[in-house]
Amino acid sequence: MEQSLLIHKAIVYATKAHAGQKRKASDVDYISHPMEVMEILALNNASINLRIAGILHDTVEDTQVTIEDIEKNFGSEVRTLVASHTEDKSKTWHERKQHTVDFLKTATLEEKLLALADLIANARSILYDMDILGDDVWSRFKATKEEEEWYYNGILDSVKEFKTDEKYEKLYKEAEKLCSKIFE
């Protein structure tokens, strides 16, 4: 299938999977988040498979879609990327986040890019909501502001090689700046 058609297929697939879902106690359709992740990846010249994984990264975790469905429809590479970013919801918030931070330390470049793009999209959303709600934004989260700060800093530390990477330095610095504004 042509690359642009694969992107379109992933967008339709994720839109149907996330139908009716909203972002963190807001009225914003959830699909806006994976679309923003895909845009961040596209602007940083990510591969087609990584862009598709960006679109689908929350489908297994937050919908009825299975990892086998992802492989059947989008191939093993996309499956691996989505699986790398799928949390085990049977674990506590802290256990899930610690696993992500630890995993990213030895993850592939594409797995790290997916996590960084997700962090940036989430951080932009938090800042946008903070402008409207102020510190009340934290009532939407399962964790405290301090716990979220620990997690975001853990991700940044796990992908810190991007800080001096000519290709991804700008992306990393955006993430740092967003986190600094959120947690100042």
TrEMBL record:
Gene Ontology molecular function: any one: guanosine-3',5'-bis(diphosphate) 3'-diphosphatase activity
Xref: Pfam families: HD_4 (PF13328)
Residue ranges annotated for the HD/PDEase domain, each copy included: 26-132
Listed SMART domains: HDc
PANTHER family assigned to the protein according to its UniProt record, in alphabetical order: GUANOSINE-3',5'-BIS(DIPHOSPHATE) 3'-PYROPHOSPHOHYDROLASE MESH1
Protein name (Swiss-Prot/TrEMBL): HD domain-containing protein
Originating species: Eubacterium uniforme
